[in-house]
Design brief:
Distance between the termini: 41 Å
Order of helices and strands: HHHEEHHHHHHHEEHH
Number of strands: 4
Shape: globular
Strand content: under 5%
Helix content: 55-70%
């Protein structure tokens, strides 16, 4: 690999990471505004127009706060834990296909993402998504606090319980596309026909989609499955002994994990960046400028926004489950359903239906 290619790769990674962080900041404002709407409140509306600069104010506040560390903690692990969680949450986006066609940025032709065509992209994404949970576990254990330790134990149990159902919910799509490449999965629905049209995989595997959605809530520690932090029971759970930028890293990682899970869900069940009724976006031009890749990116972000809206709506509507019911739901409901969905899909694919 030439020096210019290496520099281009690092530049692309830097730009992509910062764009994702910008989306994260915007998402915190959107979530707070939506929650206030659901609860008949105003929400943040003082800093900037409609309160849109509130995330910047929150960041400045956290920067000014003390990065305290209780004397009884494991110093190295206490520091490393939020970094691990943040890194793995961000690394998942390396294989997310933000488009189908090559981007042309001022004459620089590049793939729509870091490595969307990686042959084992699904394994890469699922593995890194799961590894992010270990930062939560390490942070809770290293804090030497009963509340943080209980939060870490809950996070560990959720990770083990729902990782299996999450992976099984994705298997039907993998079987139908015969691929572990995220880029190929995003466009794989075009090979399956139903009455002359090519629906997204949410139509072919609706049970798998519902299981994915519920498992994603548990994976990302989102309400009503936010038992790892449960402030009413555990003060703050695994991050009770964190403050300042270290706490900000955990909060950032939680939102990035939610974005990553939403991106995976869009790729698997909503056709990725493909646009309904537009098979070839490269034919769309504004004057002499081709806007096909931009339309694909917008399509992907709109679908992600729908996923995120559902997560926020659930948080505002559904109360937290009792912990034993959370475990029962994972092992006695979602896991058997996901297994049946895989077996049905195996029969469906083996008989050649849908082609």
């Amino acid at each position: 690999m030439e020096i210019a290619e290496v520099i281009g790769l690092f530049l692309k990674a830097f730009l992509l990471a910062n764009l994702i962080m910008l989306v994260f900041a915007l998402m915190t404002w959107i979530e707070r505004r939506l929650l206030s709407f659901f609860q008949y409140r105003l929400g943040p509306n003082r800093v900037g127009p409609f309160g849109i600069l509130q995330p910047i104010a929150d960041l400045l506040k956290l920067i000014k706060k003390e990065n305290f560390r209780p004397g009884s903690v494991s110093a190295v692990l206490h520091l490393v834990a939020p970094i691990i969680t943040l890194f793995f949450a961000l690394a998942v986006f390396a294989v997310v296909p933000f488009g189908v066609h090559t981007w042309n940025i001022f004459g620089w032709h590049t793939d729509p993402g870091m490595a969307p065509g990686l042959d084992v992209g699904v394994i890469f994404a699922v593995a890194l998504s799961g590894l992010g949970g270990y930062g939560v576990i390490v942070g809770g254990w290293a804090s030497n606090s009963k509340y943080a330790l209980l939060g870490a134990l809950r996070a560990c149990a959720q990770l083990i319980s729902y990782e299996v159902a999450l992976t099984l919910s994705m298997l039907p799509v993998i079987m139908m596309t015969s691929s572990l490449s995220m880029a190929q999965i995003a466009t794989g629905h075009r090979d399956w026909s139903m009455g002359g049209w090519h629906p997204w995989f949410i139509v072919w595997a609706p049970v798998g989609f519902v299981i994915f959605l519920l498992s994603a809530l548990a994976e990302a520690n989102r309400a009503p499955f936010d038992h790892a932090e449960a402030e009413q029971e555990l003060v703050g759970g695994f991050h009770t002994e964190y403050g300042g930028l270290r706490y900000a890293a955990f909060a950032n990682a939680e939102y990035l994990h939610l974005l990553a899970i939403s991106a995976i869900g869009v790729t698997f069940f909503l056709g990725g960046p493909t646009i309904p009724f537009l098979s070839d976006p490269t034919t769309v031009h504004i004057g002499s400028l081709g806007v096909g890749p931009l339309l694909e990116l917008v399509s992907f972000l709109v679908k992600m926004s729908w996923f995120i809206f559902i997560f926020i709506w659930i948080r505002a509507t559904v109360p937290r489950l009792r912990y034993d019911r959370l475990m029962r739901l994972g092992w006695k409901a979602l896991l058997p359903l996901a297994t049946l969905q895989v077996l049905f899909t195996a029969l469906f694919v083996s008989q050649g239906w849908g082609h």
